[in-house]
Specification:
This protein is an alpha/beta fold. The protein has 2 domains: 38-203, no CATH class; 225-342, 3-Layer(aba) Sandwich (Rossmann fold). It contains 9 helices and 15 strands. The chain has helices spanning 2-35, 110-113, 132-149, 163-168, 202-215, 241-250, 263-271, 308-316, 331-342, and strands spanning 38-40, 51-53, 64-73, 78-81, 89-91, 118-121, 123-125, 154-156, 175-176, 182-191, 225-229, 254-256, 273-279, 295-300, 319-324. Helix 3 (132-149) crosses helix 5 (202-215).
Length: 343
């Protein structure tokens, strides 16, 4: 009996060692794939005969181009040119991420599925992006801009759009959600250039603000709200978030959990804000809805500061200040910072 138990334990250990080795080999393989990915820009001279710049009759600073043929991975919203070549050639402008950040496992699939690809034409592919901030500043501006340039464009999305994404899209936009992961696209529309991801430009902010003010038909409201953007249900919630909320509520602040609000209600809350306080997170993307002169206090880690909301505040004419998390540990200190900011 003892010998049988020992034999069983040995087999389990051997299996775990083999599984660990296989996993390690797989990770090395995928790692090499990621850093061997070939990509090409639409402005590369070798693509000149395959692309045509779209005439932009609108006043926006967005440029687009058509490429005569490409293969599209709808799960990721990325596009490849001459996919039968090895390795696959990624069209750089089809993603706002760096090529090495694209999951290269998608490059292993198309060779097997090419004969079964569905054909589509005259489409703009909506990238698969679930993060609220990146959807607002890296995806949506280009959707709005191409719709202004080409009213007949068809939008293609392989992933199921979230509630806020559907609400942010114009009523006239139709998204085709196909059952195919890969499609062959002719006359595919792509941005000719993209701004640096994570940092909105003046043109990006302008097109978003004009679009949402028109969409929600909202006139400027009185600045009456004091807002704290809570992250209590996030994995990156502050340790003393509940205490901070209690102190701020006693100072007349409204606690907002943006995930629980419709996009329209988020718009109205920030548009009427006198002051906005919140830890660094996607909810502060709504600062673009604030009126000029609104006070902003961002709580940041003491070891790192991503300046995206500082830049957004500057472009929007907001009065921005940043404090480390530690500054909001004492109720007296919180009250002092709020009072100082409002004077």
């Amino acid at each position: 009996m003892l010998e049988r138990n020992l034999s069983s334990k040995w087999r389990v250990r051997l299996f775990l060692k083999i599984a660990k080795y296989v996993a390690k080999c797989k990770n090395v393989f995928i790692y090499k794939l990621k850093f061997n990915l070939k990509w090409i820009s639409l402005e590369n001279p070798s693509l000149e005969s395959h692309t045509k710049k779209i005439v932009n009759a609108s006043k926006s600073n967005f440029e687009f181009s058509r490429i005569d043929s490409a293969q599209v991975n709808l799960d990721e919203g990325v596009c490849f040119f001459n996919l039968d070549r090895r390795p696959p050639v990624l069209i750089k402008e089809s993603t706002f991420w760096q090529p090495i950040e694209v999951d290269l496992k998608i490059g292993l699939v198309p060779a097997l599925t090419l004969p079964k690809l569905q054909a589509v034409s005259d489409v703009y592919v909506i990238p698969n992006e679930q993060n609220y901030y990146h959807w607002m500043f890296d995806v949506l501006p280009y959707v709005i801009a191409i719709k202004q340039i080409d009213q007949d464009v068809t939008f293609l999305s392989g992933s199921k759009l979230t509630t806020y994404q559907l609400e942010s899209l114009s009523d006239q936009i139709v998204t085709n959600q196909l059952n195919h992961v890969w499609v062959n696209a002719s006359n595919l529309i792509l941005p000719l250039r993209r701004h640096e991801t994570g940092f909105p430009t003046a043109s990006v902010l302008k097109i978003l603000q004009e679009y949402f003010f028109h969409k929600f038909q909202q006139k400027e409201m009185c600045k009456v709200n004091r807002i704290y953007v809570s992250r209590r249900n996030s994995s990156r919630a502050l340790k003393n978030e509940s205490e901070i909320e209690q102190v701020l509520m006693s100072l007349g602040f409204q606690i907002l959990e943006c995930n629980d609000l419709s996009l329209h209600n988020q718009f109205k809350a920030f548009q009427s804000a006198e002051i906005v306080i919140g830890p660094h997170g996607a909810g502060l993307a709504n600062l673009m809805f604030c009126q000029k002169g609104t006070k902003v206090i961002e709580l940041i880690p003491s070891t790192f500061h991503n300046p995206c909301y500082e830049q957004l505040s500057s472009l929007s004419g907001l009065i921005y200040r940043a404090f480390p998390y530690d500054a909001f540990k004492s109720s007296d200190r919180i009250a002092s910072i709020v009072e100082e900011s409002l004077t």
